[in-house]
């Protein structure tokens, strides 16, 4: 990007040049972005986008889970939402507005403490509400959009719109949306529940997650979508791939649908291991696994 003419900013947020993205991803890998912008709040983000030329590529990151940034980095500007777009507002007894940078687990605990039930499963989603909205994230039998009543999006011109569910086509781990719009908030329905019961349910779910997934390691969450009627982890394990490594990347021996950055892996190590796993599973089982992780950046 031409530094002089790319854009100017009088915004309140933080603009970082040639910022390593490994600092912002749960895999702890990835090259630099031309620029990283950390907005002060939603209003500031709108202002920043209003004066950003349409020719500048935009990428969005929350907690940086479910994302693999290639080693050569990312063109343009990467917007960081985690910890910034962090407001939770109860708009009615049956609805809460949650900004995109709120961690999914925080939303689960917040609504449980309010005495609302249904969103406990989100404690097991390793990402932000923005990411959960973008991919209809789910776990433990629940999916994000089951509880969404409306969303707010922002476009390249900084315009914020509240949109109904009918504006989107939602399927398993996919949400069709306009290419120049991104989720900045979701409105979630609240169902009356029992506070202590909901908090106990969250503790149970997290204990189950800790017992079955490699929590506490550098990973992105599930790498592949579950194929219809089966589980990606089961297929990978049946192919004898648990513990398989490539460079510094290794398939978890605890759960085969997780790849761990075990020894200073490069993003190329991880991407190549993903491709190799997919090829082996297809050859041995006839099932073509679809990556759940989003791979972005310069080739």
Automatic annotation (TrEMBL):
<dbReference type="InterPro" id="IPR011601">
    <property type="entry name" value="MurB_C"/>
</dbReference>
<dbReference type="InterPro" id="IPR036318">
    <property type="entry name" value="FAD-bd_PCMH-like_sf"/>
</dbReference>
<feature type="domain" description="FAD-binding PCMH-type">
    <location>
        <begin position="28"/>
        <end position="193"/>
    </location>
</feature>
<dbReference type="InterPro" id="IPR006094">
    <property type="entry name" value="Oxid_FAD_bind_N"/>
</dbReference>
<dbReference type="InterPro" id="IPR016167">
    <property type="entry name" value="FAD-bd_PCMH_sub1"/>
</dbReference>
<keyword id="KW-0274">FAD</keyword>
<dbReference type="InterPro" id="IPR003170">
    <property type="entry name" value="MurB"/>
</dbReference>
<keyword id="KW-0133">Cell shape</keyword>
<keyword id="KW-0131">Cell cycle</keyword>
<dbReference type="Pfam" id="PF02873">
    <property type="entry name" value="MurB_C"/>
</dbReference>
<dbReference type="GO" id="GO:0008762">
    <property type="term" value="F:UDP-N-acetylmuramate dehydrogenase activity"/>
</dbReference>
<keyword id="KW-0132">Cell division</keyword>
<feature type="active site">
    <location>
        <position position="292"/>
    </location>
</feature>
<dbReference type="Pfam" id="PF01565">
    <property type="entry name" value="FAD_binding_4"/>
</dbReference>
<keyword id="KW-0961">Cell wall biogenesis/degradation</keyword>
<dbReference type="InterPro" id="IPR016166">
    <property type="entry name" value="FAD-bd_PCMH"/>
</dbReference>
<keyword id="KW-0573">Peptidoglycan synthesis</keyword>
<dbReference type="GO" id="GO:0008360">
    <property type="term" value="P:regulation of cell shape"/>
</dbReference>
<dbReference type="GO" id="GO:0071555">
    <property type="term" value="P:cell wall organization"/>
</dbReference>
<comment type="pathway">
    <text>Cell wall biogenesis; peptidoglycan biosynthesis.</text>
</comment>
<feature type="active site" description="Proton donor">
    <location>
        <position position="222"/>
    </location>
</feature>
<dbReference type="InterPro" id="IPR036635">
    <property type="entry name" value="MurB_C_sf"/>
</dbReference>
<comment type="similarity">
    <text>Belongs to the MurB family.</text>
</comment>
<dbReference type="GO" id="GO:0051301">
    <property type="term" value="P:cell division"/>
</dbReference>
<keyword id="KW-0560">Oxidoreductase</keyword>
<comment type="function">
    <text>Cell wall formation.</text>
</comment>
<feature type="active site">
    <location>
        <position position="173"/>
    </location>
</feature>
<protein>
    <recommendedName>
        <fullName>UDP-N-acetylenolpyruvoylglucosamine reductase</fullName>
        <ecNumber>1.3.1.98</ecNumber>
    </recommendedName>
</protein>
<keyword id="KW-0285">Flavoprotein</keyword>
<keyword id="KW-0963">Cytoplasm</keyword>
<dbReference type="InterPro" id="IPR016169">
    <property type="entry name" value="FAD-bd_PCMH_sub2"/>
</dbReference>
<dbReference type="GO" id="GO:0071949">
    <property type="term" value="F:FAD binding"/>
</dbReference>
<dbReference type="GO" id="GO:0005829">
    <property type="term" value="C:cytosol"/>
</dbReference>
<keyword id="KW-0521">NADP</keyword>
<dbReference type="GO" id="GO:0009252">
    <property type="term" value="P:peptidoglycan biosynthetic process"/>
</dbReference>
